[in-house]
C-alpha cells in the first residue's frame, strides 16, 4: 500500500478543488459543477459505463507494478497468506492486557473532536493503545478462522451531522483527488411515511419535484424514510413532495444546517418486509488474505442469526470480488442465489492475490453490484469489504456507482479492513451516509491480522464483527436501530449514546 495521505486543516481547499472556483463552496457536491445551470435542478446521476464481459487469466492490458508479495494462481491464501504493505502511520504502544479495555466516559472532554490522528484526548489515546505491533517481517499468531473472533466498530454520520461536517471541513483530500464527493449531512430533507396506526411504511415511492419541473423518485427504506440531500441532489429553493398518491406539499429547502422533516400518513396497508437481498463486494487482493479467511466463516453466523430473528425472511446472497487492472481478474461476479450453501461455496473458492499498489478497482466492482438483479420488494444491503480506495482518477466512477445503488434503495455498509487510510475511509463513509447506512471498521481488539488504522471517528463501541454486521442488517430489515447488549461491548471510545456522539461544550464555536 502507498503512503498515508495526511489530514491537515485546510477548510477552503475542498470546495475549490471540487468546483475549480477561486472561492470556497464547501457544500457543492462533486457533480454540481459549472454545468448546474444547464442541467437544471433535481439532478439525476449519469448512466453507468459499460464494462463488458468479465475476463480471467491476466487478460487486462494496463501495465502495473509487480506485486510486492505475489501469490501464484491456484494457491489458496489460507496456506500462504501474503502480508500487506505497512498500514498508515500510527503511534506505537505496548500490547494491551488480555482483558478488554474500558474507556472512561465521565467527562465530555474525553471526546476527540477532530479528524486528525494525533492522540489529543483520553479517548484517542485509548484508541491507539490497542495497537499491537510486531517486529518487521513477523506476523501475529493466527488462529483458525471461525466466526466471532474479529472485532469492529461502526458509525452513523447521519446521526452525527456536526461531527461529519467538521470531518469534511478539516480534510485536505480535495488537494489529492480532483473530484471528491462532498456530502452535506447537516442540511437534509427527510420524508417519513407511516400508516394510519403509526407504523413505518416501507417501499412507498416518494417523489420530489423541483421548481423547473425536474423530479426525483425514491422509495422508502424499511423505517419508512427517504433522505434527500439539497446539495448532492441539486434541489431548488422550493420543492413539492408527495408520498404514494397523497397530495403534493410545498417545502422550503433548508439553506443552513438543519433537517426539514416531512411526515405523510398513507391509508394503504403496510407491506411487511419478507425479503432480503444481501450483496457482498469484496477486495481480494493480497493484503486482504486475513479478512477473506474470516469472512468465509462470518457469513454463516450472520445468515443464521438473521434467520433466527426473522424465520420467514427470504434471504438471497450475491457477490462480486475484485482486484485491479493487470491482475488475473478485475471483477468476478456471482448473481443472487437463495441457496446459502452455494453462496458459501462460492465465497470459499476465493483467495487473496495480486494487488501491488495501494488503490484497487473498487469502481468496477460497484458497477457490477449496481447491475445485479436486486428485487424491488426486498430490503437491499451491500457489504463493501475493502482496505483501499479506488485510484484517484476512478473516484468519480465509484461515486457514480454508489449513486445508482442509492437510486435502487441499496444501503451500502462499508467494512474498513486493515490498512484503511484517509481516502478510503472518506469515500466509504460518504457512500454509507448517502445510502442511509453506517460505516463499519475492524479494530485491533481481536489481535488477529495486521494492525488496523484507527478511524477518524469520535465515539463508537467495539463488539464482535459478526454481531455488529447482524445488528446493522437486522436494523435495516426491522426499520429500527438495534443497539448491542452491554455484555457484547468490548470497549467504548468517547461518549456514545445510541449511535450519537455527545458533543463537548462549545463544539463548533471555534474559529
Automatic annotation (TrEMBL):
CDD domains linked to this entry: vWFA
A Pfam family reported for this protein in Swiss-Prot or TrEMBL: VWA
Protein name: VWA domain-containing protein
Coiled-coil positions: none
Span of domain VWFA: 277-472
InterPro entries: Thr-specific_kinase-like (IPR052969), VWF_A (IPR002035), vWFA_dom_sf (IPR036465)
Species assigned in the record: Novosphingobium album
Positions with biased composition (Pro residues): 81-90
PANTHER family the UniProt entry points to: ALPHA-PROTEIN KINASE VWKA, DUF659 DOMAIN-CONTAINING PROTEIN
Annotated region (Disordered), positions in chain: 43-90
